[in-house]
Amino acid sequence: MYGKAFAPEYRGALGELSVNSSLEEVLARAVEQRRRAELAGSALESAHAGLAVAESARRLGRVTEAKEAWKASYRAARRAGDEGAMAWAVWSGGTLARQRGALPLARRLLTLAAGLAERGGDVVARGYSLAGLAETGRIQGDYRAVAELHEKLLAEARKRGEARHTVWALEGIAQMHRNTGDHDRALEMFEEAARIAEGADDARGHAWALRGMADVLSLRGGTDRALALLSRAETTCREMKLAGALAYNHKMRGNVLFRAGRYEEARDVYAGALEEFRAMSEPRGAALAALGLVKARARLGRDLAETAAELEELRGRLGGLGLLHARDMVDKACAELGVVPGPAGSEG
């Protein structure tokens, strides 16, 4: 039995905030609470408020503000001598690094956060930090290294009845099944994640689960249902102002339209998603949206030599982000489009 989802990153005086609180509201309240804490000379409360500033700013796509906030939160937590609060701040920094495509930095920060949490006796912070490490490895495509950690974290979350973490773990494992071709298992796990998230009133987790379901259904030809699920998820993303989740929702809509042969619509959606990712300095999402855009333009008659050159540039860009499967992604696109790999269609 799962309880209601909660947001452990909202701490101290902000602990009453819901996981579904508007991010604009969270940011405004956190900035004010941080000001009050600083005036009162409370380093720990300043650290808590700074964490909420960092996380709300990150999810709104305000990366500079998020970076400054997590570092300030860490400094305040260190002044307070609270390793648990230090762990939460560094976790936020590692999560931001992953969002910005700096995967080696994300791994370093999240490893540090897990150690701080363990020393500070904060079980939840340790779990979130390990989950961040698992997600970073999954994004890189290193499934063999992180599959066991995902399963372990899922078992722990189920045992504690912690809905939000259970949903996260289910979605991560489902994504790995989807990427390795086990679509039945992937859909089953995305559906379970959606049910748990909905029951626990975890709107963000529910939106991501719907996106995963849409992806798998689209692969099976269920275009209309996939688009309907994405529209439901988009409503949540807009209501909560989840900039990153909304951009990934739009990229997935582009994928669904592309698979259905609706290339002009796909091109326009990919282009919009690309601008959204660029606006929030999210290089991984931008590269993936650009890959979709190149494919859609190719289907609409773009010159093959230009397409080959663009794909080769994307191969380097994706590989530079530490994505282990970058070459496979681009090679698959080349094969799909009948393009010879290499600059301008050469073998170089």
UniProtKB/TrEMBL annotation:
> Per its record, how is this protein called by name?
Tetratricopeptide repeat protein
Pfam families named among the record's database cross-references: TPR_12 (PF13424)
The UniProt entry, under SMART domains, shows: TPR (SM00028)
**PROSITE patterns recorded:** TPR
InterPro entries xrefs: TPR-like_helical_dom_sf, TPR_rpt
In which ranges do the TPR repeats occur? 167-200
Lineage, top-rank taxon, reads Bacteria
Going by the UniProt record, its keywords in alphabetical order are: TPR repeat
